[in-house]
Amino acid sequence: MSLGPGWTGYQWFLALMMLITGSINTLTTKFADLQEAPGEPGTPVHDFDHPFLQASGMFIGEFSCLIVFKIWVLYHRCSKKDVDVGNQKFNPLVFLAPALCDMTGTSLMYIGLTLTYASSFQMLRGAVIIFTGLLSVAFLGRKLEKHHWVGIFFVLIGLILVGVSDFIFKTPDSGATSTNGVITGDLLILMAQVIAAIQMVVEEKFVSGQNIPPMQGVGWEGLFGFTVLTTLLFPFYFIKVGPPFGNNPRGVFEDALDGLWQISNNGKIAGGVFGTIVSIAFFNFAGLSVTKEMSATTRMVLDSVRTLVIWVFSLAVGWEDFQYLQAIGFVILLAGTAIYNDMLFGPLLRRYGVLAPVQMGSPDERKPLIQDNGVDPNYP
Fold first, then answer.
1. Helices 96-115 and 214-236, interaxial angle, to 10°?
2. With bands split at pLDDT 50, 70 and 90, how would you rate the model's confidence at 225?
3. What angle do CA 338, 159, 302 make, to 5 degrees?
4. Rounded Cα gap, residues 147 and 235, in angstroms
5. C-alpha–C-alpha distance, residues 332 and 337, integer Å
6. CA nearest 344: which of 300, 281, 282?
7. Count of H helices and E strands in the chain?
8. pLDDT tens string 12-59
9. CA dihedral 8, 68, 27, 243 (to 10 degrees)
């Protein structure tokens, strides 16, 4: 059965799963950030501000993909069914560097999310296009076509407008600490996009072409990320820092014990953290499946729709107020993303003969600058 523009029912199911779970993993994280609860015995009620603990939970969600992959392979082998497990001779340590990038970028983004708005958090992630394009030129020898440069320009303008909107406007009940806090949060999110771009370049250089099953790759990255970050939680427990870091009773970089106590003392926080872990796992599966069943372009379009869902939800529940400047920035961001991926203007101009058709073997036809190499940053 085919639905819509040639999509089957299964493809619609995957698209909706990616859209819903992708929206949930940002909203549940922000929801947990807005909650309060007592921590360790003797501490007063305080905000749940534990970005590194939440990032560890995200990696648990990614690691679950490896477990599912192993179960899937075992089921087919026990049933004596043929199953394509791809390349199983790779060294798992190839995922260590991407995992470290993922760990650093995700942690920065979670800190930024505690300081700024959920919609701005999602919109500012669009900056990864700029950094990935530039790093691809510098380290992968890629050539940016005209539509790439135009797309980068539009994305940059959109990011500026979103940032200016956050600077001018602030919703009192958004969970944002102050105007300076919002700006700091936005800058941390932008820094995280630089690291995400580095991760994409590293993955393409060392992982792409090895025919590693995507679910297995994501799982290994989750295992490495969880192991390293959980180990770091021990020294973080003793490192004294000031705002915007260390917003916990002990004023340390991360008080994981306090966070676990808060999770046990407040069902809403527990639900938010659990929702993030589960949604990350399903989002990974849905996103990789969308790329396989449809295209990477479809995946990026759905990711843009996810940003709209998060923004509308944040407005509906009163986490922030509508700001026209942010709306304009969002539209320009979408246009920039579409132009960068040759989805806007280029196809139309080629259709009417203004531009020459894309030739086989050209950079546009061979390989997109941002692609799915089996391991997606999968930031919430």
1. 60
2. very high
3. 40
4. 46
5. 9
6. 300
7. 14, 4
8. 898 899 999 999 999 999 999 999 999 888 888 999 999 999 999 999
9. -150
